[in-house]
């Protein structure tokens, strides 16, 4: 996909990095200069990581690989970027939700806080040659959700069930 992928990913990556940076800022105690550096480092790490895993023609392909996850373990991309500005994993766990999933896919960036929180879309654009982006009602209902860290109980279904 050459250098075209880098330009194509820019909006999605900057949206995702800005979101994680906003979460850190909301946690408090991190300076603006540190936050700016963190955001740049995270964007670089994501660009490198996604370089050969970005398929605009098949947006869901590689989605698991691009998924950023905090689940009692710190996502390596976030951990790496934070380490560069001197934030330890312990500090990150204090500042960020303990359960966060962030999907960075071509044309869509979405996240979920908590294992059964609702999925909220941060960015969505129509796919070239695809149908226009649908208007999302969920956008208003969960815009402020990340501030409280709580989410309304989801309906009785889960996006993905894993049987043990």
Automatic annotation (TrEMBL):
Gene Ontology process terms (BP): negative regulation of cell population proliferation
Compositionally biased region (Basic and acidic residues): 134-148
Limits of the Anti-proliferative protein domain: 96-115
Alphabetical list of InterPro entries matching this protein: Anti_prolifrtn, BTG, BTG-like_sf
Record's GO cellular component terms: cytoplasm; nucleus
Biased composition (Polar residues): 149-164
Region (Disordered): 128-164
Stored Pfam families: BTG
Family the entry assigns: Belongs to the BTG family.
PANTHER family, sorted: ANTI-PROLIFERATIVE PROTEIN DOMAIN-CONTAINING PROTEIN, B-CELL TRANSLOCATION GENE
Name of this chain's protein: BTG1 protein
Gene that specifies this protein: Btg1_1
